[in-house]
């Protein structure tokens, strides 16, 4: 292998010299990893890196110049190159739900969650554990109880899961959550929709409890708002609806409490926040906040009023779910029968296409943008979502 | 890591398949050309969950094909598989309540007879018959007389009988010459009935307790007759076991083996009479040789939902599978490659092939077909008696395929086709 490489090099070097007499070019052919002296090696490596950096800068400069020139001449600027990422190189998925699909909505009406989601019945959740449960398990359940309204914890005891399902059906629970612990650490979440399924099994990882989050807030007992992001494929849509059916469908905006399930490449990230809108007197020369600037340019005098900031405070817990397999629980049959088997199916992330928001109502939109805030850190300007119907409603409270 | 390269699919021979789904829609998928990409060409019915299709069966005569569909609301519809017209709707439940049908009264087994049932035929009209079986075990044989007009369907009084005293029926099948039917299910052993006399012929016996003295409860999820006659039966159980019964040998299975770890949900026989195709609840699709019980191979692909139905194309070496991942997939049975997949949006419950689809037939021809259908009502139906009408294909296409088949030295059926195309 090594011999081959060196041979290739020896072939290439005279070519490179012939092409242009740049000594830099000749040096590059020697791989620093082949140098045995450490000092020399690191020096060569540093030099290489430096050269690369300079070249990159040069390229960027050229690009900028071309762009500027095009603008000056009034031409179309050269098209921006799109980097190849995992996301955009992904195979097109035809199962992504489209908002104009009538079959989808007919399917929605017929599915197991529709009675809760149409507010015909209020969700009532039973939370239980696996047989052995200690330390972080109960703490996690305590926090789940504070996140999910109308949730009731029942001790598992030595009951069979089927018996518990029977009991829950009798008591008219709509869903059931089983927290599975392994080595005193919660590691799986089983969500069962009652009475006839489906059942979803999630691996739970990266659990951070409330008390371990710095500057955490304490949630109020208001009904939370719910944000479901990127549940776009058919299977994802179904899982999204399942999660949605755990929460009551009438959020109390006064509570300013938001629960987020963010799906990214089959990992569902759970976050729980409180938010607040603060009218902030912006410093007039604000070079970083470009949005505020643009507002000032267009509206002139209104600047100080418009610059409202949303602040987030995480309430916890924080965890990640993945790898769902969902199947139908058939109580009559007394066993599982597979319904969906999601291991091979990916819930693809399509940027910007959030169908769940379409199904949810407009009241979700401000919190939708909060996710954007999450991505850019806790602080961001709220002006980016001005103009949504809910805007005035929220502002009334903060004033 | 997501896959970033598209999987290329070679495409299918010209075929036409009908799929049925949980919302009661019937979708027609057609592939044209030698390497056609199948597409949805038609959709019949409005999405409604009470119309969920439980079973479907096609009698694909050349002239007057008919498609029977049993729905969740207790109705059996007879459709024209060419244009989706509903000929007649029959209510099967005696309770008569529209809308709510008790769970155990659903029609799970349905078979449309391909051959005319002569003993029930009357003068000046011809009759078609179909067999239904509810979950409770009420099997009934109904015949429908076709009057001169299209609308003139009348349904005779069904002759019904009960096939099981306990348990519930989950699968049923009718053999090639349509004189015997089998039923089986949860808590109900496989039993074979003579359809001419409506009498029970044979009942299976559950296998012996194993060396640990463990008894496996009876739970058949799917079953089919194997070969030309009614002697051999292949059944799949919920405990992922495949069993071969031989009526002439014994009441216990002559062979049984396990396959993977989820319930066997669909079993279909090949036309050669010994190969079978299995689909499981976890989306595994495989083919077995039932003479030896050996696995011939798995169909590898990205099936991600329980397989609910498998159909074998009568002429081309193609099978179709569908299930809860809402894809209809076509597979080559020789190479076991995925030919193509169609996303159909709903949980699919059943798939059938329309064997009479010809490539030259275009969408405009359906009207012509209709006329043909109307005419045929007046005619004496003779050619319907042969079970599978031989289809004439494009010779170029045919030649290519046959070369491959010949090298493997199989099936006189295909040889027949060569004769056809050369003549």
Automatic annotation (TrEMBL), chain A:
Protein name: Uncharacterized protein
Species of origin: Persea americana (Avocado)
From TrEMBL, chain B:
Superkingdom of this protein's organism: Eukaryota
Name listed for the protein in its UniProt record: Uncharacterized protein
Organism: Persea americana
